[in-house]
Amino acid sequence: MSYVMHMRTSHIVASLLRKTACVSVPTQSRLLQRFIGTAPRVQTGWAAKSPISVSRRSASSVTPHSTASDPAEAEALRCLEQGTAKLEEGDVQAAKSLYQRSTEIKRSASSLFNLGVTHYHLKEFDEAIEAWKESIQYQPSSPDTHTNLASAYIISPVSRPDLALHHLEIASSLSPEDPEIAFNHAAVLEATGRLEEALEKYKLSQQFGVERAGVHIRNVSAKILGKRLKEEEKHDKAE
């Protein structure tokens, strides 16, 4: 794994009260403890297919048409690679400038993706979201971009769990056996009160190797049982 963790290698937790409402800061910070990976992944080269890795992994994919014969494209690629080197050194501002330069010369899924990474690390969440949304226009089949967007929507000052859930659903459909996506999807489902669906996703993430999903499986199972008991009690009182 490289220096840049995709939004999938730290931890985020879910405690959102309403599906489309803005969450409070304390609730939001709890949610951020449960996600696996809350920092973005980085790409090198022009993305033609899903990145090899994200969240602190480096992704690399090159189109068959990427050659140095086009001076502008070669310069954009050089800026992209230099930006990634700076990012791995920890110089996020320098990386951001180089990624911006790359996008000015030739916009691509990778340059926009990595520009979003730098915005995210600088807590410029609106800008990160815009960069990743544009990256998706060039590469709609990237589960990593959708996952990172979900993390940005969760960590933003005005949190949008509804939009996070939307992008996690897409990421899950694109990469159904990715344990990190399944776990993060479960966390947001749990946070929005969709407990049965969350339980399924936690079980899936455990099946694919996320050991700590077991704790959440027990917790969600207890919540479901408690909810059913309350409903039964309410029904009995009504009679």
TrEMBL record:
Q: Does the keyword Lipid biosynthesis apply?
A: no
Q: Which sections of the protein are TPR repeats?
A: 109-142
Name under which the protein is recorded:
TPR-like protein
Keywords of the record: Repeat, TPR repeat
- Name the source's superkingdom: Eukaryota
Q: Which is a Pfam family this sequence falls into? A: TPR_16
